[in-house]
Amino acid sequence: MSADRPWVRQACPGVAAPMSTGDGLLMRVRHPIGGLDAEQAQTLAEVARRFGSGALELTSRGNLQLRGLDTADLEPARAELENAGLADRDPAMEAVRNVLVAPVTDIDPEAAMDVQPVARALARALVQNPRLRALPPKVGVLVEAGGDLPLDGVPADLRLEACAGLGGVWFRVAVGASSRTATVLGWTRPEKVVDVALAVLERFVELREGEVDPPGRVAGAVARFGPNVLTPPGLERVLPGGDWVAARMPGCADAGMGTCLNGRAFGIAFPFGALRAEALQGMAEHIRPHDGRLRLTPWRSLLVTGASPVESARVAEWGGVTDPNDSRLAVSACIGQVGCSAGSTYTREDAETAGASARGLLAGGGHVHVSGCDKHCGRPANAQVLLTAREGRYDLSLQRAPAQWETVLTGLGPGQVEQALAALDTLAREERGANESRVEALQRLEATALTRRMNAKMNNGDSA
């Protein structure tokens, strides 16, 4: 980052270090642990409207982005966000404060414990540790505790997962994309978990030093050096009674839609994570009389807690969704050419077309992500089909395993994307076996054969 231009394009922008995009400057407010109160939500809405374009975005890391700011308005915008307790003045401190916490462990009786105090303590320790300023900007920590709204499938570099086992609450310390696939380093008690997390991250920084091609993520360090090298002393290697985290039932993010958590919360999702300042202002007004809160989730949704459910007409007015089966939630896209200088396509328009062309696949649990360039900003972990724009055309890829993508078609132009997705949808229907989802059927097919069969269907016009 340039000292005299702290808003150049970078991997992880913040409030102290905005990023230049195609529609102005972008500020990213780090995940607010415990959510926003009415005053904070109103401040965000006002800053977005007065100093930016009024466009806001919820991210898959539980952050909130403000778009369309101008250089001349940076200082007053920063000042208001800092005064509201939503930002750091120091870019180096802000860059390392990447902690995502399960949104409602304080009101979820099924959670192993309320992990928000642990997450706050960890966030403070991260910014106070000068050694950790050397962490790559995308490295983040997840803190969760099971319950009705767990983060089982949300990826993270370091996972701190509380569970109620024999002898009380333990934290599983793990590295990986999900609870099921993570590499477990060991187990520790709540009072030690912050120190353990810091020790793992410090060791990661040490391992990167002197490497010609240092691993950018903690999972990369585990793959290169092995888990034992990252495991600090004092961790229990085996939990008495077995792995209680792995034994939990898989979590379902859909449970956070509409009235949920036995009436304790009301979830509103936003297609593409996009909402306007007016919507956030309306939600602030809704929770203010009840001293409620807005909890940001990694599912690009907001959970209203401490207040009554929102009327459906208001949700629709804000552009929100409360039906987990709404097809708009099965597609995602970055901002694309509309708001990014790196984008070469109108991604969100193309994503809507993609959803219409692959209804069967999406109904079977599939998810399509459309990216305006090969950075793949905002790609969710549950995406199985990826459209990557290159100079105005798309490459189509399938996720074979976590974070492992295989391209099956390239250079798809206007009209061809719809044909390709329709062909993919048809093949998934034809190949699906007993007790197998459409996505699993596609993942089973070898790439070369899949490419050949998709081309045949597209050329013969029988992809419908």
Fold and architecture overview:
The strands form four sheets. Strands 1-2-4-3-12 form a five-stranded antiparallel β-sheet. A five-stranded mixed β-sheet has the order 5-6-7-8-9. The protein has a five-stranded mixed β-sheet with strand order 15-16-17-18-19. The longest helix is centred in the middle third of the chain and has 16 residues, at 193-208. Mean pLDDT is 91; it is low at 1-9. By secondary structure, it is an alpha+beta fold. The protein is globular. It is built from 15 helices and 19 strands. It has helices at 38-51, 74-83, 91-96, 116-128, 193-208, 218-225, 227-230, 244-247, 277-287, 312-317, 347-357, 359-363, 416-431, 438-444, 447-460; strands at 19-21, 24-29, 55-58, 64-69, 99-101, 141-144, 156-165, 168-176, 183-188, 258-260, 265-269, 274-276, 293-296, 301-305, 331-333, 368-371, 385-390, 393-401, 404-412. The relative contact order is 0.10.
In short:
Helix content is 31%, strand content 22%. It has 464 residues and is α+β, with helices and mostly antiparallel strands.
Q: Which residue ranges are poorly predicted, with pLDDT under 50 across at least 5 consecutive positions?
A: 1-9
**What would you call the structural class?**
alpha+beta
Overall mean pLDDT stands at: 91
Shape: globular
The main sheet comes to: 5 strands, antiparallel
Instruction: Walk across the major sheet and give the strand order.
Output: 1-2-4-3-12
Q: What is the number of E strands?
A: 19
Question: Rg, please?
Answer: 22 Å
Strand content: 15-25%
Distance between the amino and carboxyl termini: 49 Å
What fraction, in percent, of the residue positions are helical? 25-40%
By DSSP (H or I, 4+ residues per run), the number of helices equals: 15
